[in-house]
Specification:
The strands form 6 sheets. Strands 3, 8, 9, 10, 11, 12 and 13 form a 7-stranded antiparallel β-sheet that branches. It is globular, with a radius of gyration of 26 Å. The protein is 23% helix and 20% strand. It binds heme C (HEC) (7 copies). InterPro entries: Cyt_c-552/4, Multihaem_cyt_sf, Multiheme_Cytochr_ET.
């Protein structure tokens, strides 16, 4: 009898320790840790990062971390560099120098060796990776005198290290990043010199990726409110409600990064918040250029608003076809169903005779939003003499007559 009691107590103990261990490894489930602010916006609001959103918006969080947006910038480490560091595969050979991409004690860096004269060498650490790695990755180095883009980039389609786009075939001086690159590839960065853009950043205070708070604004207050909220104590108005934006405000949020270079910068790009009017912050020098000459790279906004679908309907914006929380690359059926939501049978239907339609009749985007080689985004491959353009799907929705044939390849 005594033995049995001891046995039961033992079982209880084991169970109890097991539960404690389980709680220890999975983390606390009931009480939340204090909010850790990564950076403060100029308006005083804190950015806390998407890991915190997981508590209450688990579904959105889990699809969001698979998007190109979320992955478009990360702190570089040898595991997230897509290119090979193996000897023989890790060199970009220029006219006057070789750049080797290598690592020491687990820290990746680019090593340049001049081929002639004193054969001097330079080492630059790789600190921030720009690009989700769908097409490529470029790397930034954080030096005492500023943040710079490195000359060796990685190109995914051909799996090779390349000379970064727009660099000459010689060892170039390090290129200051300033807000360029950052304004479209990170959520928030603040120059150490508050007043202007001095190319000096504390990279530990950067909110990397195009994260939740890029589109929703800094969310410290929202989370503090929701965690303390036990029901009927007021309404949470700390975030801009994106569903209530006007069409232009909604477009402007996406256009802040998808309407070309906008190199006519009027105000600090990192002061822009959802709901703001973009033309008060920046303009394109070529904003009066006719639409057909706009480049497909990074200007989905300019192309879309030149399309008849856009001008002849009053509600179309980017969200009409894109779910901002999901990776929808190659979901052809989903996109085509969006076309058909307006182009049902009848006078809105495709006028191409079915005899000419070929086997891809239901794939509207293949013929009306074809993939077109970019004039601006070109890379110099080791194996090819000439610059090779990158193909990007145009957002000028139109009739492309040469697309009415059968042999169009399925991308
Ligand atoms: C403690 C729970 C909690 C956390 C953490 C949290 N939220 Fe929320 N959030 C809510 C609740 C509850 C609502 C619904 C509020 C309502 O509409 O009444 C909400 C609503 C929202 C909305 C819709 C607001 C609107 O008016 O349309 C957005 C956007 C949002 N949250 C973004 C975020 C982001 C981004 C994070 C992470 C930085 C986050 N939330 C973290 C609880 C939370
Ligand atoms: C005006 C916004 C903007 C600026 C500025 C910008 N980019 Fe981009 N970048 C984009 C967009 C948008 C894409 C997605 C492809 C497209 O639409 O053309 C992209 C794509 C990329 C990619 C390919 C990512 C992939 O794997 O698909 C890399 C690498 C990249 N950019 C690096 C840079 C670097 C380095 C700089 C600074 C010299 C820079 N970008 C400046 C908006 C920008
Ligand atoms: C690229 C911009 C973008 C990013 C990044 C983004 N959102 Fe949103 N979010 C939107 C837009 C736009 C809407 C409004 C959608 C609509 O009009 O249907 C929205 C709506 C919401 C809503 C309210 C409606 C709903 O679907 O429940 C919540 C909550 C939300 N987002 C949370 C988040 C969280 C959490 C993250 C990060 C894990 C995030 N969002 C990342 C653009 C974004
Ligand atoms: C802070 C700048 C920024 C904002 C704001 C932004 N994007 Fe992007 N977006 C990018 C960059 C950069 C890329 C390229 C990411 C990569 O591949 O590295 C991208 C990629 C995309 C892609 C391609 C995804 C894929 O799978 O390759 C889509 C679609 C897209 N954005 C739609 C939107 C929409 C819709 C909005 C507005 C709700 C928006 N973006 C707002 C910067 C931005
Ligand atoms: C919000 C509704 C809407 C959506 C979504 C939409 N369209 Fe349209 N589209 C229109 C309207 C309205 C017109 C103008 C019709 C007219 O002038 O008779 C149009 C015109 C067109 C034209 C003729 C263009 C020209 O220059 O003559 C084509 C082709 C077209 N759409 C294809 C598409 C495809 C492909 C998709 C999906 C990627 C799509 N549309 C999505 C509303 C829409
Ligand atoms: C009528 C539907 C439609 C609308 C509206 C629309 N898109 Fe797209 N978008 C698409 C389709 C279809 C693709 C191709 C998806 C794929 O290849 O998987 C795409 C692809 C993209 C890409 C990736 C391009 C590439 O080749 O790398 C970006 C970036 C993008 N859209 C941004 C935007 C932005 C920003 C807006 C608003 C200005 C917008 N889109 C409005 C249908 C649309
Ligand atoms: C194989 C290529 C191809 C496919 C697939 C295709 N179209 Fe077309 N579409 C064309 C061509 C070419 C024309 C011009 C035909 C003509 O001369 O009238 C056209 C015409 C149109 C028009 C009328 C344009 C005008 O001048 O008013 C619309 C709208 C349209 N297509 C929508 C769609 C939609 C929606 C889908 C998907 C269900 C689709 N198309 C699929 C090639 C295609």
């Amino acid at each position: 009898m005594k033995k049995k009691a001891l046995y039961i107590i033992g079982l209880f103990l084991i169970g109890f320790i097991g539960i404690k261990l389980f709680q220890y490894t999975t983390g606390p489930t009931e009480e939340y840790s204090d909010l850790k602010v990564i950076a403060y916006h100029y308006n005083g609001q804190g950015y806390i990062g998407s890991a915190t959103c997981m508590e209450c918006h688990k579904d959105i969080y889990e699809t969001h971390i698979k998007t190109a947006h979320y992955n478009t910038s990360v702190f570089t480490n040898i595991d997230n560099i897509k290119g090979s560091l193996k000897t023989g595969e890790n060199v970009v050979s220029l006219q006057d120098a070789d750049i080797t991409i290598t690592e020491r004690d687990g820290k990746p860096f680019q090593h340049a060796q001049i081929k002639y004269g004193d054969k001097s060498t330079f080492d630059w650490g790789m600190d921030i990776t720009i690009g989700s790695g769908l097409k490529g990755q470029s790397y930034l180095t954080d030096q005492s005198d500023g943040l710079f883009q490195l000359q060796a980039s990685y190109f995914v389609p051909t799996d090779e290290w390349i000379n970064s786009p727009n660099y000459t075939n010689r060892l170039n001086p390090l290129r200051p990043v300033n807000d360029m690159c950052l304004k479209c590839h990170v959520t928030f960065a603040r120059s150490k010199d508050n007043a202007s853009n001095k190319n000096q950043y504390d990279i530990t205070k950067m909110v990397l990726g195009v994260d939740c708070e890029k589109c929703h604004g800094p969310a410290e207050k929202h989370v503090a409110f929701q965690r303390n909220s036990t029901g009927a104590n007021g309404i949470d108005s700390s975030l801009v409600n994106l569903t209530s934006l006007s069409r232009q405000q909604s477009l402007d949020l996406c256009a802040s990064c998808h309407s070309g270079l906008r190199n006519n910068q009027i105000r600090n790009p990192f002061t822009f918040l959802p709901g703001d009017t973009l033309s008060n912050f920046s303009k394109n020098y070529q904003s009066l250029r006719p639409s057909k000459t706009l480049d497909v790279h990074g200007n989905q906004y300019g192309l879309l608003i030149s399309s008849k679908c856009f001008t002849a309907s009053d509600q179309m914006d980017c969200i009409t076809c894109h779910d901002p929380h999901k990776n929808q690359r190659n979901e052809q059926e989903y996109f085509n169903s969006k076309c058909l939501s307006c182009h049902k049978q009848g006078d809105m239907h495709c006028t191409l005779p079915s005899t000419k339609m070929g086997k891809n009749g239901s794939n509207c985007i293949q013929c009306h939003m074809p993939v077109i080689p970019s004039k601006n985004m070109q890379v110099q491959l080791k194996t090819l003499e000439n610059a090779t353009p990158i193909g990007i799907r145009t957002h000028l929705i139109a009739v492309y007559p040469d697309r009415s044939v059968d042999e169009i390849q399925v991308e």
